[in-house]
Amino acid sequence: MHAILAFLPARIRGMIERLPGMAGVRLEEIRIREARPLELVIDGESKYVTPDGTLTTDAGKGYRPSKEDGLRLLDLLTNHSLYTFEEELRRGYITIAGGHRVGLAGKTVLERGEVKHIRDVASFNIRIARAVPGLGKPLLSAIWDESAGTIHQTLVISPPRQGKTTLIRDLARLISAGETTGTPFVQSGQRVGIVDERSEIAACVKGVPSFDVGPRTDVLDGCPKAEGMMMMIRSMSPDVLIVDEIGRQEDAAALQEALHAGVRVIATAHGRSVGDVRDRPVMRRILEERMFARLVELTRNRRTGSRYNVWDASGRKVAELAAAELGESGRTPC
Fold first, then answer.
1. Which residues contact 262 (CB under 8 A, 6 or more apart)?
2. Using CA atoms, how far apart are residues 21 and 125, in angstroms rounded to an integer?
3. Average pLDDT of 127-146?
4. Which residues contact 300 (CB under 8 A, 6 or more apart)?
C-alpha cells in the first residue's frame, strides 16, 4: 500500500489511511471519479468512503473527489509530465511501482480515427497487485507434461479481477525455483522468461523484479508481447515463457515460433470459459491449431473461493481443483 498512498492526493490518502485495519489488507481496487462517491472494492464487495474515513454502502454519504483531486492524482501518476506518459494515456492505463495498474477514463482525442491520448481524465481505477505464494501449487500436477519433463503449453482463462496475473506470477516462481508435490514436478527448476508488457507480473523497478518470480527467471519489462517473446527466445533461451493477455494476430505468430523453438508457454486470456475465448477469431485459430495442450478456466467468488477447471486441447476435462486460496502467505489474491 505504501507505493499507492504516495500517489494519492493528501485528502484521499488520509481517508484510506484511516480505514479499519483489515480493509487495507483486503483492498483490491480504489475507484476515484470526479464528483462521484469514492469507491473501494474490498474482498470482492464495493463500499464507499465517507469524508471521515469510514466505510458505508450508502453512496450518498461517500466523499466526492473534486476536480483538483483528479488533477493532483494525474500529476503525481505522470511525475508532473503528461508528455512523457503519452503512450500510457493512449492505452488508457498507467502502471506504477509495485505492479499496480491505474486505469483511466475521460475524453479521448482521435488522430486519423485512432485514439491518440486521453484528456480531461475524470475516472481512475487503481488495481492493487499482490503476490500470493503457493496459489499455483495445486495446478502444477494438472499442467505437468511428464513425458517431456516440463509443463504443458498452458492458457489461463478468466474474466478481469479473478487473479490471472497473480496466478501466473506464482507459477513463474514455482517453476523457476523447483517444486516437489509428491512426484518430481520441476524438481531442479527451469529457466523462465517473463515478457511483462504492462509491468504487472514482475513489477520491475529499473529492471529488477519487485515480486519474487523465482531465482532462474529473466524479465523483459515494458515490451510488446509478440516482439518480446522472440527477443527472449533469442537472447535468454528460456525453457518456459510467461505472458499476460494474448489475443492479437501477432501473438499467434509468436506462439507458433515459440512452439517451433521447443519453448513452453504459459499465457492468459480474458473470458468466462473456453467457449468465450473460442468466439474471438484469433483465439479460435490458436485453439483449433491446438497451440495449447492445457486450458485452465479460473473462477473466483466469495462462496466457493478460487477454482481451476482444466481441459486438454481436445476438450476433455483433465482436472477440477480448488486453489490454495490463501497461498503460503495467508493473503488473498487480487
1. none
2. 22
3. 89
4. 44, 158, 162, 163, 306, 307, 323, 333
Domain 137-322 is classified in which CATH homologous superfamily?
A: P-loop containing nucleotide triphosphate hydrolases (3.40.50.300)
- Give the pLDDT score at 23: 58
pTM of the model: 0.81
pLDDT of residue 332: 41
DSSP per-residue codes, 283-298? HHHHHHTT--SEEEEE
**Assigned C-alpha cell, 152:** 504443458
The values of phi and psi at residue 297, to 5°, are -90, 120
Query: Residue 201 corresponds to which amino acid?
Result: I
179 CB-near residues (< 8 Å, 6+ apart): 137, 140, 185, 186, 187
Q: For the chain, give every domain's residue range.
A: 2-127, 137-322
Summarize the confidence of residues 118-131 as an average pLDDT.
91
Pairing status of strand 45-49 against strand 55-56: antiparallel
* Torsion of Cα atoms, 283 then 286 then 290 then 293, to 10°: -70
Whole-angstrom CA distances from 74 to 66, 98, 108, 179, 205 are 13, 18, 15, 42, 20
For 231, the grid coordinates are 527477443
First to last CA, the chain: 13
d(CA 290, CA 152) in angstroms, rounded, equals 12
Report, at the CATH architecture level, how domain 2-127 is classified.
2-Layer Sandwich (3.30)
